[in-house]
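ABC transporter related protein: structure, please.
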Amino acid sequence: MIDVRNISKTFIVPHEVRALVDVSNTVKAGEVVVVIGPSGSGKSTFIRCLNHLEVPDEGHIFIDGVDILDPKTDINKVRTEVGMVFQSFNLFPHKTVLENVTLAQRVVRKRGKEEALDRAMILLKKVGIQDKANVYPDQLSGGQQQRVAIARALAMDPKIMLFDEPTSALDPEMIGEVLDVMKTLAREGMTMVVVTHEMGFAREVADRVIFMDHGAVVEEGTPEHFFRNPTHDRTKLFLSQIL
Ligand code: ADP
Ligand code: MG
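Here you go.
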């Protein structure tokens, strides 16, 4: 489903940083991959490359067989197939929950009003927030807003869901409700790449864990491998700091 070959990315401004250095990885359909690593290690840059929010300087990325770095590829189509959820929920503040979840369905997927509404209500129910359909985002808690953001991404019927620290901005008591929605998605077979510091989630849900440092994949393996006998000193150090 995702095939990343030798991508590199250097930012020049404000100062030169090699954010990704020759990263390769493949993710199979239905696989859940958790990306961990210290701040600044390139996790966000990596995940953002997967839906063309960042463009690598070198390398290739295929999403379900489509070369997304080919100038002829329709990036908007790629983005409908690859949903993304950010740390900051990014809901449209002047639209209701329901409007947030129907807008792109109507504009991008060209669905009729009824169809979009039906789909939105199914998804709001799925994330446990159907009773808030007609309120505005600022009337919701952070956890509720993030669940709406997940519903909004799912409304495009994506083949892949990317999550970049989806619970990092939440109060502790709200982390569980968002992780529960993500666990359900994983169980249903969604292909997912998740950047998170929630090691319980990684242990329980990940098929594979990737540890990044200084723009490179240092180590990857099953959660058992990772949490029981990591090989690299940098992995051990990182885990000792966060566990
Ligand atoms: P992480 O998500 O692991 O914290 P990032 O991918 O955000 O790491 O960042 C990797 C490196 O690239 C960091 O040094 C960061 O400062 C730099 N970086 C990320 N995005 C940009 C950008 N848009 N412009 C300049 N530098 C950036
Ligand atoms: Mg990040």
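Notes: The first strand starts at residue 2 and ends at 11.
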